[in-house]
Each structure stands twice: as structure tokens, then as C-alpha cells.
Amino acid sequence: MKIAVFSSKPYDRAHLSAVNQDQHQMTFFEPHLDEQTAILAQGFDVVCCFVNDTLSAPVIRTLADHRVQMIALRCAGFNNVDLVQADASGILVARVPEYSPYAVAEHAVALALSLNRNLHRAHNRVRENDYSLHGLLGFDMHGKTVGVIGTGKIGLAFCNILLGFGCRVNCYDPCPNPELEKTAATYVPLEQIWTDSDIISLHCPLLATTRHIINSNSIHQMKPGLMLINTSRGALIDTRAVIDALKMGHIGYLGLDVYEEEAELFFEDNSDEILHDDMLARLQTFKNVLITGHQAFFTQEALTAIAEITLRNINGLANNDPAAIYQVKQ
Ligand code: NAD
């Protein structure tokens, strides 16, 4: 198979090449796949894409014109793919449904702990020879109520860590996970997540029903001073509403690994550029906001698993073995 790997970074090249062992011919392109770059897919059987590639209907039609047979996503989420067009164009869409739920769950916990104990501020302070403690006061995680929205693989791993801390864990998911029901976590109505939680963490996919699930109405029902963590997808949060709530002190802490408008910024070094995104710039002014650039998945174990499952999907196409492909259907 000839594979065009888009949005590729040195770490993608290293992990995919190590697993591929020259079985398939891989070409690594740094740019995102979008309407301008889709032409690069000419002559390839597979395009291998990541979270911020654009797989809209026009892009997929161009891929079909170039006889691309598979979109092999290197991620779990597929909200960036027009599945209706992929189906109409006869292009298979494959994903990596699970690589390391622990990677993302542990990063969500890292954000929560850093915000709580102000580690981001303390680190800068100590480097300035300032060992004062004012402004660094935290709270015990033990005994706090954590609301978890989405209890699939990552949500479950997150709940298990928080249960270990002695937190009370309330969850909401329209499809309860039997594994979670074996734990001390409890399913509650969504309204109770809003009203009872000291910390809310988002682990559901971005769907029409979950877009802006955090909005002025849901924020209004939340406890003043709560902590909100989003390692899932940026558009789960109405950023403008969250900024208003931060300005009023209603949201006490915000930890983000994903951002609604991240596509043009994240995964790149823009340090020499002017930041034109005024909402992201405003978020960065709050001392109680901690933002990472979509790195929750970024562990050795996860990158190896992503490469292995991506190659498994591509081998399924090469060997005409649909059962070996983690296919995404409409
Ligand atoms: P999963 O499919 O195992 O679980 C998702 C859960 O969300 C399911 O149980 C589903 O029933 C539930 N859900 C669906 N609609 C819901 C709703 N309206 N309210 C509450 N729950 C709802 O997925 P996962 O592997 O646990 O991943 C969760 C999300 O994490 C992914 O969709 C992706 O957006 C995100 N993610 C982020 C990173 C990162 O690096 N930041 C990495 C991987 C995944």
C-alpha cells in the first residue's frame, strides 16, 4: 500500500516507521490534510490523518477522484470526518478506538492537581527565588465530589484514579458502562452533575448533542468556584460563556487540553507569531487557567499503540480482511 501520512511530526514518523518495517510505502507530509493539500493524496491508497485534518465532503471527493481507498485515522475521535460523503465515495474510514485510555485520564488528573495546588505558579515562583505561599492555597481532593461526563474507556480510567483519591464520583452517560457499575462511582442525572460537583471532567465525544454541553445555562447551575477539566474536544465548551464565568469568579479553575479553535494553532510552534485568537489570549490571562496543547494522548505507550493499530487497519485493507479493520460507520 502507498500511504500518505498527513500532519506528521518526527514522533509519528518514528513510531509508524518502527511498526511498518518497510511493509508499506509511507510518505510523510507535515501539512494538515485540507482542501488545499488534498491534491497531495494523488497516487496513494491510504491517507493517514490526525485530529485537526479536515475530512470534509469536498476533501473526500478529491480523495475519491485520486482513488484513495481508506482514511486511516491515528485517533479515536472522528468528528472531523464527513462520514456520509466517505460512504457515498466508497472510502473506508478506520480509527484507533483505544490506545491508552490511561494516558488521557492521567493527563486530566495532572491538570486537576496542578490547578488545585497551583503548581504552574509555584514552579515559576521558585525559579524567581520566591518561596512565599500566598495565592497557592489548595484543597484536599479526598472527599470532594467529582462529576464525570462520558464513562467510556477514558472516563472509566479517570473515575478509578479519582476513587483512589477518596473522591465521591458521580457520572453521566446515556449508555452506562457495566465496568463502571462494578466500582463505587454512581450514575446520576446530568442536572446533578451540574449542581453537586466540585470538579467536572469531560470524557464524552463531540457530537451534535454534546457540542457546547458547557454553556451559560449549565454553568449557571454549577457550584461557584468549581473546577472544569476538558481533555476531550474543544467544542464541548462554549468558550465565550466560560470566559464570562471566569471573569465573575463562578468557575474557580479551568484545565484545558483541547480548545474549540485549536486547529490552526495546536501541535505547532507559533512562538514567533502574533496570537490573533482573542479568546485564547483572554484565557491565558487568568491565573486559574491551565492550558496544554492537545498532549493528553502523548505517551510512549499511546504512540506505540496508535502506530500498531493504524498499521493493523491498513493491513486489513491490504489483505481484504474487513474484520481486522476498526471501521467507523455513519
Ligand atoms: P469512548 O467511546 O470509549 O467513550 C465515550 C463515552 O461517551 C461513551 O460511553 C458514550 O456513551 C459517552 N457519551 C456519548 N454521548 C454522551 C453524552 N451526550 N453525554 C455523556 N456521555 C456521552 O471514548 P474514549 O476513548 O473514552 O474517548 C473519549 C473522548 O476523549 C474522545 O471522543 C475524544 O474526543 C477524546 N480524546 C482526547 C484525547 C486527547 O489527547 N486530548 C485523546 C483521545 C481521546
From TrEMBL:
Protein's UniProt name: D-lactate dehydrogenase
One GO MF term attached to the UniProt entry: NAD binding
Keyword Kinase on entry: no
EC number: 1.1.1.28
PANTHER family: 2-HYDROXYACID DEHYDROGENASE HOMOLOG 1-RELATED
Span of domain D-isomer specific 2-hydroxyacid dehydrogenase catalytic: 3-322
Gene3D superfamilies in the record: NAD(P)-binding Rossmann-like Domain (3.40.50.720)
UniProt superkingdom: Bacteria
Keywords from the named record: NAD, Oxidoreductase
UniProt record similarity statement: Belongs to the D-isomer specific 2-hydroxyacid dehydrogenase family.
PROSITE patterns (UniProt xref): D_2_HYDROXYACID_DH_1, D_2_HYDROXYACID_DH_2, D_2_HYDROXYACID_DH_3
Occurrences of domain D-isomer specific 2-hydroxyacid dehydrogenase NAD-binding (ranges): 109-296
Family matches, as SUPFAM superfamilies: Formate/glycerate dehydrogenase catalytic domain-like (SSF52283), NAD(P)-binding Rossmann-fold domains (SSF51735)
InterPro entries: D-isomer_2_OHA_DH_cat_dom (IPR006139), D-isomer_DH_CS (IPR029753), D-isomer_DH_CS1 (IPR029752), D-isomer_DH_NAD-bd (IPR006140), D-LDH-like (IPR058205), NAD(P)-bd_dom_sf (IPR036291)
